[in-house]
Amino acid sequence: MSVLVFADSSEGKFKKSAFEVVSYGKKVAEQLGTNVVALTINVSDSSELYTYGAEKVVSVSNDSLTTFNAKQYAAVVTEVAKAESATVVVVDSSIDGLYLAPIVAVSLEAGCASNVVDVPSSTSPFTLKRKAFSNKAFSNTVISTDIKVIGLAKNSYGIHENAVSGTTENFDAAIVDSGVKSEKVERATGVVTIADADIVVSAGRGLKGPENWGMVEELADVLGAATACSKPVSDLGWRPHSEHVGQTGKPVASNLYIAIGISGAIQHLAGINASKVKVVINTDPEAPFFKAADYGIVGDAFEVVPKLIEKLKAFKAS
Known about the structure:
Elements: E1 2-6, E2 9-10, E3 13-14, H1 16-32, E4 35-41, E5 56-60, H2 70-83, E6 86-92, H3 95-108, E7 111-116, E8 122-123, E9 126-132, E10 137-143, E11 148-152, E12 167-170, E13 199-203, H4 214-223, E14 226-229, H5 231-235, E15 256-260, H6 266-272, E16 277-282, H7 289-292, E17 295-298, H8 301-317
Parallel strand pairs: 1-4, 1-6, 4-5, 5-12, 6-11, 7-11, 13-14, 13-15, 15-16, 16-17
Antiparallel strand pairs: 2-3, 8-9, 9-10
């Protein structure tokens, strides 16, 4: 009996979510009176996970797993879960995690709960609090199967150090033929990604054109933030689709979300509602976004944003 967590990585480096799922898995393992095991794929040094409570790391290395493939990754997670007699499997609720969790659940004949925001309120019955209705409500879900698969919502539990003296074990996993082959993968380099960002600076059609995006990027650079955009902006080709956030784009659960010149359509709000603090800059005081915002500035972005950058630079300098 154990709790298995999948510590996601990219190009051999752990994503921020990896530390959160290990922290979460450690707490669940304590509730169940068992140990937590972390699974890594193509990471040369996994010792960093010991800091967050991973008493054992199962390391899988295979060139066939360089690019994420839901079926192949699920097969590896399933094989390791069986080998470790895992009764709980935890993954993150990223786009990859949302593909991964249900396949693992079917393979293990397990109940599955995604967008979980807290440790079980009860282990008998096994009860989990989840986000529902596009982050507008919560639901309490009971998993009654012997094995449970949990998709942990980003930034819901947090990263907690709980250093242990862990061990790492290499595992030779069987690689299945998924029938799907990636021909090309394009990754943004040298910038903070939306998935790992604590702060996201997003802009919409209020910026009037792609030539005005310099101030958005400058504000993001000052804050150490990722840049994002609304759907119309990516549709117009002003920004890449990888930056489109919202219900039909990438979900955002940052600690701070700054929306510049975005009116706040319901689809956009549904995708960013999980962010903890939302700041809106818009010339229209009736923009729907103001109803969802924690802080709002009614003003012209071309006047407000440069002043904000100036003040932030002065603050950082002092």
